């Protein structure tokens, strides 16, 4: 954990309503951290359905393998998350740990092990002993209560400087339903997946395949559109649970038009959490939104946007409050996507610095410099070729990023 | 320019022999820098042949366009390089500058403008006025002399902390020939091309198409195998000139077995320069060699190696002298190439830290920590799938990188 809270932390945190069918408890297991919670148990009522998306890493953690195997059933009764150790690249020991944890959680909750979901975050390559925290699960299951979302968000933090929560309420098919989510960052954030961990639950009744369709499409413009350092975690996990307790008639068709408001609200929760992750990027002092327009298609626009967002030279320039649009040109050029130097236009906030292949003669260095001192920087590049567009979010690259990551393990 | 010389600067610099058929002169044009040279003229005797490789950026600089257009002729009489301004993203003004510079150089040397080659390095997007230095070319052409290679290397520096030179001599088809090269970095270094600028000349007689074949293949394992920050410059240029004055019978077939020693020597010059660029990477305190073995093929190995080399988390760990092999696992996993977590093995120098999917039980934290204090760090990842292998070079990511790039333009 960092000593000080990010200057980009939210000014206010929403009160998180209890969700019918979800119980939450946390504990100090002492896995790595001292004097803070590092273990989270979420218990779901019978009938809870689940969807998930995971890292595309070819070296996923043992908990990712475990979740993928259980996702096929579509049912969830509990989620166990620990911070301090990722249980990644831990070989047979890692698989034994997830198996044992799954069984202990199943016993604590009174369900089958294939209704358990697991996530671990922290150091890679260190064996994680399930006995360090498994014995706590029974007590946690008994004390789990509905409203402890802020505590849940705090327990899963690693180098995060603030807990990340978001909530929305929306009408769905005859009932008002709630969507609550938590997330944690803060390094190794890049598509795909770009969280490290995020858990979202709703009391809506929605069938698992519909949840999966909603989650897979919403993630493209939210968690898969943020990047801190271009590094993809071995543990990235986003799970969506639906307890079905809100009383709406269960939705079973992903094309059902009644889903639209729910889809939008879910998108807002994911976007809110994803941007919070970026704003707590390691060492971040500024949030950067990159918008690319005029690309040959949306996919091309997103690749160009990520090329800009992942460029160390762009990110250090923003850290230095320097509207160095030349580096944006560089990043457009290296993306490998169709681009025409002589049609490019670039804005920093409202200030157009370049158009038609050269510096905008009307651009004011003074006004742009003043803009760069803000904490939210918006960079737009218009490629001038077509209608493709995309937005992604990142943060600046500061000396603090280097400091945090230069001695994280020790 | 940085205030202090990189601790990784060469301990000794080779004496650069004069090359028959090459004259060199430098000047202080005051384009951006004060009290240092920023203009280089190389003059080549009639009959000099030329080959080149350039940035793959979709937004190349005006000089790159100019060189590409002239390369088809295969003949060179002069090279003009300025530092301080890249003449990139300068629109019509940029093209006018290269046209005017080409004409002024042709007049100074007494040749056609299509035998002129140009390169510019420095800030992007600022117009470059040919009249700021074009009037100096006539005088430089008169005073050009054979041995001024160190001065040439110094004149093309931007944020480099030391000039980069290399030389080799080798027998070729009845004569001893010399290959001299210079290069400059030091940010925006990534494939492809991974220099910013490098110029190599030889007195050998080699036909332009043969030169091109040699250069294109040698660059893959040298300049295209180094990366500082994954950012690709708009100006990357590597030119190879052959004056033909050494007296060897001219080589006209790229498959000629007599070329082998020359090919090896050229490769050595390029490798030497490329690694010097990495060792002068902005803020670099350690050189990192990444070797990947056991990949499904060589191409896959190189992509994995570059994924490791470009990972900010790997680079900051090395900066912090932390043998954080878990981040190497992460970088292998995110490369998108075939990999099997449970077959991976990872070494830092001679120390095997992980094998068969988990931490090596015999690994000594103490010995590895001592190894990490060195200035050359070798990381090897064996993928365990096939015979593919590759080596790439990079440097660590330090707070100084952020400092240098946070206020470069201002």
Summary?
Chain A is an alpha+beta fold and 410 residues long.
Explain what you see.
- Two copies of one chain form a homodimer.
- Chain A is an alpha+beta fold.
- The first copy, chain A, folds into two domains: 22-279, 4-Layer Sandwich (L-amino peptidase D-ALA esterase/amidase), CATH 3.60.70; 287-406, Roll (Ubiquitin-like (UB roll)), CATH 3.10.20.
- Helix content of chain A is 29%, strand content 24%.
- The first copy, chain A, has eleven helices and 15 strands.
- The first copy, chain A, has helices at 62-71, 91-109, 137-143, 149-155, 208-218, 260-279, 298-309, 312-319, 325-334, 365-372, 399-406, and strands at 22-27, 39-44, 49-54, 78-85, 116-123, 164-172, 175-184, 197-202, 237-242, 287-295, 345-348, 351-355, 358-359, 376-382, 388-395.
- In chain A, strands 13-12-11-14-10-15 form a six-stranded mixed sheet. A five-stranded mixed sheet of chain A has the order 3-9-8-7-6, sandwiched between helices.
- In chain A, helix 2 (91-109) packs parallel to helix 3.
- Chain A is globular.
- Residues 191-195 of chain A have low confidence and may be disordered.
- At the A-B interface, helix 2, helix 8, helix 9, strand 13 and helix 11 of A face helix 2, helix 8, helix 9, strand 13 and helix 11 of B.
- Chains A, B: Keywords: Acyltransferase, Amino-acid biosynthesis, Arginine biosynthesis, Autocatalytic cleavage, Cytoplasm, Multifunctional enzyme, Transferase.
- Chains A, B: It is found in: Cytoplasm.
